[in-house]
Known about the structure:
CATH topology of chain A: Rossmann fold
Oligomer: homodimer
Number of domains of chain A: 1
Largest interface: A-B, 20 and 20 residues
Number of strands of chain A: 9
Strand content of chain A: 25-35%
Distance between the termini of chain A: 26 Å
Radius of gyration of chain A: 17 Å
Amino acid sequence: MQFTSEQRLDDGILEREFTLGEIPGTLWTPESAAPTPLILMAHNNGLPKAQPRLVARARHTASYGYAVATIDAAGCGDRPRSAADEQVRAELRRAMQAGEPVDEIFESLIGPLVEKAVPEWRTTLDALLTLPEIGGPVGYSGWTALGIHLAAVDPRIAAAGFFAGGFVPRAQREEARQVTVPLLLLLQWDDEGNPRQRALDLFDAFGSKEKTLHANLGGHVGTPWFEVEDGGRFYDRHLK
Amino acid sequence: MQFTSEQRLDDGILEREFTLGEIPGTLWTPESAAPTPLILMAHNNGLPKAQPRLVARARHTASYGYAVATIDAAGCGDRPRSAADEQVRAELRRAMQAGEPVDEIFESLIGPLVEKAVPEWRTTLDALLTLPEIGGPVGYSGWTALGIHLAAVDPRIAAAGFFAGGFVPRAQREEARQVTVPLLLLLQWDDEGNPRQRALDLFDAFGSKEKTLHANLGGHVGTPWFEVEDGGRFYDRHLK
C-alpha cells in the first residue's frame, strides 16, 4: 500500500490517495490519538470514488471519528473496462433511451462487477487493518449489492448501511438472508430507476435480527442530509 | 387548568397531574429559564396516559428540553365509557379470541373515539399555551389516527411523529393527504395486529413534502429505544 498524495482538510481530517497494486483508493482519517474504527464506503453500481457526493459523505463520516476508505475496484470508477463491459454499457444506454426493460442488462453488468470487486475490497481491508491509525471494528456503507456479498463472505464486517438506489443482482438478492450483521437500509421513496417494492422485499429478506429501514420522500439523489448524521449514530452504536 | 399533584424527578423534570374540567392530564416540564416547545403525546387506540411505556417516553422526551403533555380524552384511558362503548369493546374481545375479522369493530370503536378526543386535545392545547413555561412551536407524538385529525384541523401542530401500530379509521386514512407538516412514521415490521401494507400505504398518502419512515424488525412492542432518540432529533429539527 503506497500513499501517493495527501492533504489536510480544514477540520483536521487527513485525506490520502493510495495505490495497492492496481487498485487506486482514498483514505480519510480523523485526528485521533487512539486507533479508530474503519468504514468501507462504496457507490452503487461501481460509480467513481471521486464522485463529489461520496467524497462529501466520506469526509463527514470521518469527522465523526472514523477512518473511511474507498477504492475503484476492477471495472469500477475510472478503472479500465473490457471490450465486453463497454459493449454492455452501450447496450444499457441504448435500452434506457429507448425506454426498454433494462433488468437483464443490469444483471449482466452488475453481477460480474460485484464478483470481481469483492476480492479487491478484501485485499484493501487486509492492508488497511495493518495501519497503526486504524483499529477495528469495520463497518460498510453504500453500494448494496457489493456490501451484501462482502458482508456474507467476510466476517470482519460488523455493521452495514446500504443505499437502496442501485441494482441488486439475483445472486445478491439470494445472499441477503446470509447477511446477519446489524444493518440500516436507506430508501428514497420515489427513486426513479429503482422500484420501491424491490427495496422493501430486500429489507424483508436480510437475515439480520437488528435491521432498520429509513425511507424519505423524494427521488434518487434527494436523500436528506440528516440521514448522514443518522448513519453516524447507527455506526456509533455498533462500532464504538 | 388545575394542578392536583407534582413531583420533581431525578433529572430535574417536573411531573404534574392536572385537570381541565373533566379532562385529566399529565405535564412534564424540564428545568429551563426560557419557555420551551411543547409536544402532545398520545397512545394509539386511546390507551391510558399512565401506561408505563408512554410515561417513560414522555420523561425521556422532556429531558431533551420539551414540555410534554398527555391527557385521557373522552372515552380514553380511565375515563368513563358509555354502555354502547363497553358493548363494542366486549364484541372486539370476543371477535379477537374467536380469530374473526375485527376491522369493522375497530372502525366503530376508534372512529368515534377520535372524533370525541380531538376537541379535548385542542382545549388542552389552548390551556397549555397560556402557561409561562411553555412557548411554541407545538409537536405531536404517538397515536396516529388522533394525530392525523388533530394536525388536519389545528394549524398549531408544526411537526408530527406517528406510531403505525394502531387502527386508523377510514376518515383518517382519507384525511392523511391534508396533513402537510413534517412527519416521522414509526413502523414495527412484524406488528402482529397491524398489517404492514396499510402502514406503507398510509405513509404514501400523507400530504407532507418532508416525511420519513423508520421501520424496525420486530413485533408491536419491540420498538428499539434508539427510536426515542431519533424522534428527539426529528423534533429538534422542526421545533427548536
